[in-house]
What we know:
By secondary structure, the protein is of the alpha/beta class. The chain has one domain: Aldolase class I (TIM Barrel, Alpha-Beta Barrel), CATH 3.20.20. Strands 1-2-3-4-5-6-7 form a 7-stranded parallel sheet. The longest helix is centred in the C-terminal third of the chain and has 18 residues. The mean pLDDT is 93.
Amino acid sequence: MILTKTIPDFSLSPHVDQVGIEERASRFTKRSIKNETKLNGLMLALNMIDLTTLEGKDTEGKVKQLCYKAQHLHDSYPGLPTVAAICVYPSMVKTAKTALGNSGIKVASVATAFPSGQAPRDIKIRDTKYAVQNGADEVDMVISRGKFLEGEYNFVFDEIAAIKEACGEARLKVILETGELVTYDKVRKASDIAMYAGADFIKTSTGKISPAATMPVTLVMLEAIRDFYYKTGKKIAMKPAGGISKSKLALHYLVMLNETLGEGWMNNEWFRFGASSLANDILMQLMKLRTGVYQSPNYFSID
């Protein structure tokens, strides 16, 4: 395979001020949000969720149930949006695609030896092509963190570029697994590598290790997207995943998104939440705003 992309000098990725990024991230949690804005924000956050099931015990029945939930989040509340996508293993893509029909909900599939990424490149490419051939609209790949931490940045770049080529028309989400990268400087460098190699999204985490998404890490990645846009004119999407289970926190993320990247990113084409449990909490908050009382969690299906 001949790759034609020019590899930038990633040693030039900017240093991240740890104190500054954490202080800025904390400010977004202190914004006052009025009820009308809160309602709009909750609806938007709901429409940005990728409902996910990535377990070894996944069955076709479980995936079909999740797809049904995606289309019927709470039938007693008319006018709710759907979620953005269903995310499954490649073996379940065809099941999800059939179950979702013409709903407009995307099918995303993890690939590339998720979640470890510890497989030869040819296997990762076949894994990706299998998902796409079965109908995946989006592919979530994991970078080779071992190679990255060894400083093999060209290897990581080439691997992302190869997976992007294997995706064809499907959009590529590149998972950095930020909890294993440890420092903000490494998160920034990995973000730059992913974007220049062809990522359509950059994503924090697999959700399989802790810490997963945090507001400071997400802010580092949002600022990388902003700088990349200023340099190239190309928009890149963002997906924080793991650990975002409460509506209030999701609203904080949307405030941060709006103030860092602006209105152009405030939709599910350019921002997603990888947090299935978030959906039920948003539904509970929406019912509280509508009726004045909380419904029991028993009113909502378990993912």
